[in-house]
Amino acid sequence: MAQRRERRTGRRRAGLAGDPEAEAVGRIAQPVHRLPIYELASEEALEIIHRASLELLSDVGIDFYHPEAEAILKAHGVRLAGQTAHFDREMIAEYVAKAPRQFTQLARNPARNVVIGGDYLTFAPVYGPPFVYDRDRGRREARLLDFQNFVKLTYLSPYLHHSGGTIVEPTDLPVHTRHLDMVYSHIRYSDKPFMGSVTSAGNAADSVRMAELVFGAEAIREQPALLSLINISSPRRLDDRMLGSLITYAQARQGLIITPFLFSGAMAPAAVGGTLVQLNAEALAGVVFAQMVNPGTPVVFGAFQTNIDLQSGAPVFGSPESQIALYVAGQLARRHGLPFRSGGMFASSKVADAQAAYESVMVMLPTVLAKVNFVLHAAGWLEGGLTAGYEKFILDEQLLGMFHKFLQGLDVSANGLALESLATVPPGGHHLGTPHTIANFRTAFHRSDLFDYNSFEQWYEEGAQTADERANTRYKAWLGDYEAPMLDPALDEALQAFMNRRKADIVPEM
Amino acid sequence: MAQRRERRTGRRRAGLAGDPEAEAVGRIAQPVHRLPIYELASEEALEIIHRASLELLSDVGIDFYHPEAEAILKAHGVRLAGQTAHFDREMIAEYVAKAPRQFTQLARNPARNVVIGGDYLTFAPVYGPPFVYDRDRGRREARLLDFQNFVKLTYLSPYLHHSGGTIVEPTDLPVHTRHLDMVYSHIRYSDKPFMGSVTSAGNAADSVRMAELVFGAEAIREQPALLSLINISSPRRLDDRMLGSLITYAQARQGLIITPFLFSGAMAPAAVGGTLVQLNAEALAGVVFAQMVNPGTPVVFGAFQTNIDLQSGAPVFGSPESQIALYVAGQLARRHGLPFRSGGMFASSKVADAQAAYESVMVMLPTVLAKVNFVLHAAGWLEGGLTAGYEKFILDEQLLGMFHKFLQGLDVSANGLALESLATVPPGGHHLGTPHTIANFRTAFHRSDLFDYNSFEQWYEEGAQTADERANTRYKAWLGDYEAPMLDPALDEALQAFMNRRKADIVPEM
């Protein structure tokens, strides 16, 4: 019975009928953030942090481990001492100003193009886990099938605007060619925008080539079709794989998210202020370098930050310190006039229990209030990012719907104030069935169709299911009802021919 | 083994040793909110809402079902049409201005006095549930033993500053005298401040008399020893029980929280704006009336608000609409210069699962950012307030600790910036064991000792416990280690003598 209702709900989602907010898959547009932004730090504190970052970049420097990168830096007047680059203050301002404040990323379905930056929010699924978890089979190594499942679930959600990148690592595929299967799966099973591979310059070039096949080589130079994740190997270095990918993408004018990857207490100081100094310095170095490679390349100021538990060394997600860092990183990004990436539904917990949920909202609600423009890991993250949870994905997605509604803000129009109802419903009366209530029945309040609001008795009689049990039923229903978006057979053939040729050519690294 | 470690942890909490943040029970002071407040609504929108509230109070009015209240209103120039009171704009401003902007509530242990209002936050446990839940016995009717257990758990938490009121309804006691046992239990098993009974004027008078026995009749007129919850019977009426309690407490100059109790779509319009108009009007009517009874009576502007699911009529907690209402209600309270009560760890879920946790943070994080001065329901709430959960209480308490740390804000001092560490840790190095990390080891990051940050393997080998399973062990450990604070035997005897006399005197209502 529960199974049957779930399947119907799933079909409604996938099949477009009835839901006032989501009559078509992904019909819901990106939320536009016109509410006040939570500005935690004073202008003075921001200035202290930014000045310290500039001094760090100028006096201490940051390492670039890539011969071509060194040549580019030298050609643009950066002081190099060995592999350590020293950037001057004026140079940073000059090159940051070359980056666009916002840009559009192409989707295979043009109705799903996303705006990155400005007042727009973009939600994308978890990225990177080598493991998956579900209630039936527990934790296991992720496979291509899991990757494709998460692409499909993301496609079906109206609240995820972006298909993401390495949603999980398909560990059943050879390392040296799996990037092809991942990019292909995004194209084949979704029509939302997606990310490219960053595991090497060659893999980045393959991603660009596949995007060219889908969108055309010229079109993607006008507006990027790939948005890819360049992590800084903090502290203070960019490694050759990331630099190779960065250069390849920037030359093809594809979007880049430059993200210091920081655990305060490990790769960064055991202090939020110092972590922000480092984060700002490292992100700016990457942004400036990308603009040296190709001025105008779309770049996003990234901030992946939390702290470790100093007693055990374990990463802690959802911490109060990471909230503070997130707000202030957003202030820095806006100061630079750059789109901002941070946050997500982070959790340290191993399963979709209360801890996972507490932790996730402790990061995601600040993510929304800080106006993070690109939210990777907006659904599915478990176990410090080592695991993608099927149930967690479904539960997180419920929250994303709520954030969409929250961002619509306060309505003080005549309808929003309902003055006539206020005056006519008598003391002790109720507003059920008033003309105002009837007129606003479908839109007044967001409705989660997975969370339980029934009486205890009804909930108990229907099996006393916990939220993750209901989510387990739901994800299977969605996958059962999934229908792939149309893909031109000629394009599909071209993509497969390219992949097959590359799979024959690429030599595994030893 | 897990049990033994839990018991040790419990003892450490209760026994004062080792924890850098909480060396004594309740040693942690109230958090002071000096961060920016999240101001969601524009000044213009606030003005629209406030003006509409004033018109509602003046033109439509609000009912007072109590003969003495009617006399008081009339004596102060309020226009009465039957039981409907019409308040003029100037009158409202005049009487609101008589209320203190902040006040101190006495605790039996003066070190635990709390400041209500200003920049201070006060966290109190759940209030009102007739049921309790734990993993071992499921959901059952609450008894006096449960009430006392929650008083003890609240006493042991350094992050709950207030013992609350009707934490649960002790359904095993006679209705007409159970208020005596509740007030006595707060005094006997805790030394934190507490709330009085509001079930009738007589019960309020009993609460005042017991407070007089503890603190002295004069002392509690100087600074209130009781802070009690006056709910408006929305829409637009105050009933005789609440008015009787209000008058009794105001005459004794005890603190009052005037709270419209609103589900948008039921007792309020299906619109956040209209709900705020009503909420503001109803709360102001109660505040003004209390100042007419006794000018200078400490009053708190209360806002209990969420919406129903319009399809089923069920209350929905953690909704995006309720977040918006909470932020704006806080803005209204500050506009009036009144302490603010709202929010809490609300959840619709029946158990301490992911849904309960998502919902709770969706309310509690806005509660903190909105600078709610008095947070009832800050721990233990389940099932729309029908159930107090033991595990939920313990889990919520973990979050309260995190909010304490969050409110310390960003440190951009030399130590907060850690510039020397930033310059000396080499590229690719780490900050483990640096002089700065060692110097900040205990205070840099808040540490939950209940949330799990271990590796998957370790978590799995130790029993793969979910958060609510760990919380189950924890609450039993705390209760096992509990030691009552000292109570003067003569005072105890006086309290018991009073109770026995009253129990013989009070005639049950038919």
- SS field, number of helical segments of chain A: 19
Helix content of chain A: 40-55%
Number of strands of chain A: 17
SS class of chain A: alpha/beta
What is the oligomer described by this structure? homodimer
Largest interface: pair, residues per side: A-B, 123 and 124 residues
On the 0 to 100 scale, the average pLDDT of chain A is 94
Give the overall silhouette of chain A. globular
Q: Give the percentage of residues in beta strands of chain A.
A: 5-15%
CA-CA gap between termini of chain A: 53 Å
User: Which segments of chain A are poorly predicted (pLDDT under 50) over 5 or more consecutive residues?
Assistant: 1-26
Radius of gyration based on Cα positions of chain A: 23 Å
Largest sheet of chain A: 5 strands, mixed
Write a structural description.
The structure is a homodimer of 510-residue chains. Mean pLDDT of chain A is 94; it is low at 1-26. In chain A, a hairpin with a 4-residue loop joins β16 (381-382) and β17 (387-389). Chain A is globular and about 80 Å long. Chain A is 45% helix and 13% strand. In chain A, the strands form five sheets. In chain A, strands 9, 11, 12, 13 and 14 form a five-stranded mixed beta sheet that branches. The first copy, chain A, is built from 19 helices and 17 strands. Chain A has 510 residues and is α/β, with parallel strands linked by helices. At the A-B interface, α2, α10, β13, α11 and α12 of A face α2, α10, β13, α11 and α12 of B.
